[in-house]
Every structure is written in C-alpha cells, then in structure tokens.
Predict the structure.
Amino acid sequence: MSGLSWARRNQNWLPWVGGAALVAVPLFVIPALSPAWDPLRLAFVWLILWQWNAQISRTRFGPVAAPVLFGLTLLILWEMTVRLFDVPSVILPAPTAIGIALVDQAGTLRGDWVQTVAKGAFGGWLMGSAAAIAMALLVARSDVLRRGLLPVGNFFAALPIVGTAPILVMWFGFGWESKAAVVVVMVFFPVLVNTIAGLDDTTAMQRDLMRTYGASAGQELRYLKAAAALPFLFNGLKIASTLALIGAIIAEFFGSPTFGLGFRISTEVGRLNLPVVWAAIVVAAVTGSLWYGLLAQLEARLTFWHPSQRGRA
C-alpha cells in the first residue's frame, strides 16, 4: 500500500525515470549486438521514446518538457542511425560531432554571426522594415501609389534572390553593406503589403465614428488605423525575420570577406568539413528561432486585445 501511494505521489517523475532506463538498455547495455539487430534496436528506442513523449505531454511539465523531449528524441535517433549504420560524416555527421565543432569553432562562429546576423541581416531588416512602414503610410493615403506601386512591388518580390544578390554585391561591395541591401530588397515588400492590409482593416462605421468625434487625420491614424494594422505588421515582421537570415547568408555565397555564416558554409562544404557546416546551420537556425520568438512575445504584449491573442490565452 505504501508503494502504491509513493507511486501516486511521484507519478509525474515516473515517466522520466522509466523512459531513461528503457532507452539506456539498447544504448549502453547491449551495444555489442550483431549489426543485424541494429534496425530492431533503433525501432525499439523509437517506440520507447514515443511512449515517453506521450506520457510526459500529459503531465504538468508537458507544455515545457514535451517540445524539449521531442527534440532530444530526434537527436538520439539521429545519433543512433549515424553510428549504427556507419553513415560517413560527409553525408550526415552525428549530433555529437556537430556539438564538438560548435565548441571548437566557437570563436570563429561568433565572428561569423556578428558579420552575417548583427550587421547584414538585422541591419537590413531594420532598414527594409522602416522603409516599408513609411511607404505603407503614404500608399494608404494615395490611390495613385496604391495602383502603381503594388503591382511593381509584386514583380520585384518575385525576382529570384540568386539573381539579384550578385548584382547588389557588385554595386555595394563585399562588405556587410551588400548583404544588408539584399535583405532590404527581400523584406521590404512583405512588410509593405502586410502593413497596407492592416491599415485598410477598418470598417466605414469606425471611420465615421472617428470623424463624428472630430478626430483629425493624424488621430484617426494613431488611434484607429495603427491599432488595426499592428497584427498585420507583426506578421510581416516575423516573415521578414526569416527572409533576412536567408538573404544575408545567400548573399555571402556571391562575395564576402573571410568570415560570415554564408562564407563559412560555402568554404567548409568545399573542404568536405560537414560538421562545421552543420554547426553554422545550427547557429543560424537558433538565431532565427530566437528572433522569431522575441517578435512573437512583443506581438503578444502589444496586441493582447486582438481576438487571435485572446484565443491563445
């Protein structure tokens, strides 16, 4: 009876202990089995980890632990697949090899991050987004600009980045300025279109009510249209944050100083040093995820009144 009560008190921890014990069996206890058993061992670990994920997701730790555990599950299966089937590192390096490359090349990757993200991607994102918002305010007040600029904008947005990046690199040089220029071109029109859509997201009754209260054009923009545009603007900014990283990295393939994430990827691919290539990819992916997450948190704080945010509460 005491054992049953102990299990009830510790039911949130039992899935962690049980899952870890079961996974440890094929990983450490029977590592010397015949290679013929490798697919079965991999399937067994996958099944245990799947059940472990399902149990953890139902506990009070689920909202935080479930995505972390799912990511660890993918890493464990990745590591086992590479080791059990002797996958060459030039095809797919193991996560441990990528982790070692991250540690060994930390100083180099830090300099690459500053060049690509802090200067090229973030600088271009700021300039492109600010220019798009300013242009959206003008377009919202002018039918001539709306009819003339938006079709041209759709044309430029459809231009392939691998075609425009070399031209911009030739215009602005091999420094971070050319990467920022590529990012400006990529983020300008998504932010512009979303902002214009947001500024138009008001009803005739709302606009008539503002005029009835004697609101000026500036007050109508500030208290009505800008508030309506915020959710659309943040959608554009979040899309632009991912495009900014892509644009900056691709632009470095066509000319760069001897550092930068794009330069590192292209150089190390030529040397078949795939762990460092994946380490640079991990740095870019983590940066993009954090950037997107910060924008999502800011959106939740500034647009808490919007139905989409209330629905997530």
About this structure: The two ends are 41 Å apart (CA to CA). The mean pLDDT is 80. The domain at 103-312 is CATH 1.10.3720.10 (MetI-like fold). The chain has two domains: 2-86, 103-312.
